[in-house]
Amino acid sequence: MKSKFYSGIENINGNEFYYEYFKHPSAGPTIIMLHGFLSSAFSFRKLIPHLQEEYNILAVDIPPFGKSGKSKRFLYSYQNMASSIFELTDRLQISNMILAGHSMGGQIVMNMLLQRPAAASSALLLCSSAYLPKSHQSLVYTSYIPFFHLYVKRHLAKSGLEKNLKNVVYNQAMIDEDMRKGYMSPFLNNSIFQGLTRMIRHREGDLTEEDIRRIHTPCLLIWGEHDRVVPLSKGKRLHKNLPNSKLIILKETGHLVPEERPEEIVAEMKGFLSAVSV
């Protein structure tokens, strides 16, 4: 049986949340997919086809990224993003959940696991952001300068899309026009830079080791051996601090594991979910 595809926008806590919902006619659990910083649900494009035959899938654009809103009234903290995702799943009447997050999305997943420990049966953390402190206070103060968002725009433009893509994949030959267009699209709306400015102010920093140790949900950690964004050393530290976790290391792989190793991720994920459901 094929999944039915829906997309929609829900206004939650003063911002628009765009989502793509692949609803399977007979599947039980729903995998909630949360992308990383400067990305969108596009980053799961290679994972979804392998999973939608067995699971419901809800892929969300986290504000201010992708097709979601860039509201100046929204609180861009991880805690608020986590509670807002729960509000979205409540509205869509999703209760049987598996949480999956890449990079920044993994940090939001861990915040969700702390807020509602019983909400998800398991979690998948793909090169999850971890142990990153909040923005320096001087940068937070500077962000209130008028037109600071233009500085953010210039800073990101200076590094350039091509350089950023080369930084997140191990095999740079895989970068093609589809990737370039998909990862460029979130930046075609200039208001994203105002949202990023507010994120600098509101982001509270990653969870502490003490908080992480309180998460007892079964977690599968998948890391690229050559991750230059969130180094493998952080993955090993996270595995040590998460009481009920398993770490898989993918050889010849960088940070963008959903693009680089979708088949391996799906195989490891299905094996993990089968084991924890016994």
From TrEMBL:
Domain AB hydrolase-1: 29-262
GO CC entries: membrane
Keyword list, A-Z: Hydrolase
GO molecular function ontology, one term from the record: hydrolase activity
InterPro entries in UniProt: AB_hydrolase_1 (IPR000073), AB_hydrolase_fold (IPR029058), AB_hydrolase_sf (IPR050266), Epox_hydrolase-like (IPR000639)
Gene3D superfamilies membership: alpha/beta hydrolase
Name this protein carries in UniProt: Alpha/beta hydrolase
Organism: Bacillus mesophilum
